[in-house]
């Protein structure tokens, strides 16, 4: 078998990794949350490469990686530790933020921008619960960036979460088990939900409130209003991501997704969601068809979450000039909500895993950096109501997602 060389000649493929470091790489690989954490880092910073690295005075080893800029780094690959920004983090024993390395007096002569072409970098050190230094969690990019200092706080909390899970993996290895016990799962759930619900939502709410307050001023020009509108739209997307992450954590830790059914008319609810999405998708055409009796007992907030996820996905993955069809049809025993778009056909091979977390049906629109939880959450909400979701995707008819909701 021929192994292709890495994209960067300074990357050394894994061959003889030290036994202790190899065990650490394997331990990180067993932590399910790491993939989600790295996706959150790229979403939060806009940087395209996120890494968890084991860093010692002698070595730098990749333990987990999310590479959206084709840097060529793989799990187990090594770098000369002195050539990395991560070595600086190890020496500082603290976080590091570099937005434009080649123009930063501290780093313009550093090997990282010269050897690897890295211009932007943000990282925090990782520690085991004993206080022992493990390595670095970082996000980086070949392009300069404008990451603000407040993003380091998000990194710190997520770094604490990964460090805690490393400790748990060592304990589990000693027990010859890879399953989290009830106590460990509960602690992980509480930590992650605390990070997401408090440390991320509160700043976002403050940003949204400030932007909405400024929008009410009468002395703003069109350029200022467009800028504020972008801030509000970005905050809304981030809040939706947070809600999806909370629900994902709920389900993956063995809890039932909570629903609160009450009498509702899904025709009225669908019209409301379409109107709300239309405000943020200006220039797109959303056609709504309501038919039959759509009254029943469902959780209106959850059903609105389903519709918002499906319609925003349709907006994201369909051509700008195409129409999006939203339907709410009342049938004898159920109401069927459907969203149809004219985007790229979802390959048949991806259908079985389409509703799994961290999955996309197509790579088009990936510049929006979705975490890939939307369809997973849609499916979980439908199941919580005793229903199900199906999808049909053809070149002739487009892609249609149907949510079947039995009348409560």
UniProtKB/TrEMBL annotation:
CDD domains: HATPase, HisKA. InterPro entries: GAF, GAF-like_dom_sf, HATPase_C_sf, HATPase_dom, His_kinase_dom, HisK_dim/P_dom, HisK_dim/P_sf, Sig_transdc_His_kin-like_C. One of its GO terms (molecular function) is phosphorelay sensor kinase activity. It catalyses: ATP + protein L-histidine = ADP + protein N-phospho-L-histidine. It is an enzyme of class 2 (transferase). PANTHER family: HYBRID SIGNAL TRANSDUCTION HISTIDINE KINASE C (PTHR43547:SF2), TWO-COMPONENT HISTIDINE KINASE (PTHR43547). This is histidine kinase.
């Amino acid at each position: 078998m021929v192994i292709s060389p890495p994209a960067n000649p300074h990357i050394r493929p894994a061959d003889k990794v030290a036994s202790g470091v190899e065990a650490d790489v394997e331990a990180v690989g067993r932590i399910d949350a790491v993939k989600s954490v790295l996706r959150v880092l790229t979403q939060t910073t806009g940087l395209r490469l996120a890494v968890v690295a084991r860093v010692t005075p002698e070595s730098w080893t990749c333990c987990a990686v999310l590479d959206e800029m084709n840097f060529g780094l793989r799990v187990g690959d090594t770098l000369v530790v002195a050539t990395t920004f991560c070595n600086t983090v190890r020496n500082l024993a603290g976080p590091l933020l570099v937005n434009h390395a080649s123009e930063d007096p501290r780093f313009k002569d550093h090997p990282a921008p010269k050897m690897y072409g890295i211009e932007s970098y943000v990282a925090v050190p990782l520690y085991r619960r004993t206080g022992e230094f493990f390595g670095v969690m970082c996000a980086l990019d070949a392009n300069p960036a404008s990451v603000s200092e407040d993003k380091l706080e998000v990194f710190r909390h997520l770094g604490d979460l990964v460090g805690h899970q490393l400790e748990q993996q060592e304990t589990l290895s000693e027990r010859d088990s890879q399953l989290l016990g009830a106590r460990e799962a509960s602690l992980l759930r509480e930590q992650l939900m605390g990070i997401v619900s408090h440390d991320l939502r509160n700043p976002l709410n403050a940003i949204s409130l400030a932007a909405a307050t400024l929008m009410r001023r009468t002395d703003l020009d069109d350029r200022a209003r467009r800028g504020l509108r972008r801030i509000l739209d970005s905050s809304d997307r981030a809040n939706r991501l947070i809600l999806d992450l909370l629900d994902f954590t709920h389900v993956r830790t063995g809890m039932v997704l909570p629903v609160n059914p009450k009498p509702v008319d899904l025709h009225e609810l669908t019209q409301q969601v379409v109107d709300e999405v239309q405000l943020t998708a200006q220039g797109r055409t959303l056609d709504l068809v309501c038919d039959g009796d759509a009254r029943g007992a469902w959780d209106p907030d959850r059903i609105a979450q389903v519709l918002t996820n499906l319609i925003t996905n349709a907006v994201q993955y369909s051509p700008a000039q195409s129409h999006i069809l939203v339907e709410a049809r009342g049938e004898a025993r159920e109401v069927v909500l459907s969203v149809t778009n004219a985007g790229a056909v979802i390959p048949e091979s991806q259908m079985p895993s389409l509703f799994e977390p961290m999955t996309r049906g197509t790579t088009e629109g990936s510049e929006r950096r979705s975490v890939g939880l939307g369809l997973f959450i849609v499916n979980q909400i439908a199941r919580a109501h005793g229903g199900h979701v199906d999808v049909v995707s053809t070149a002739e008819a487009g892609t249609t997602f149907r949510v079947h909701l039995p009348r409560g």
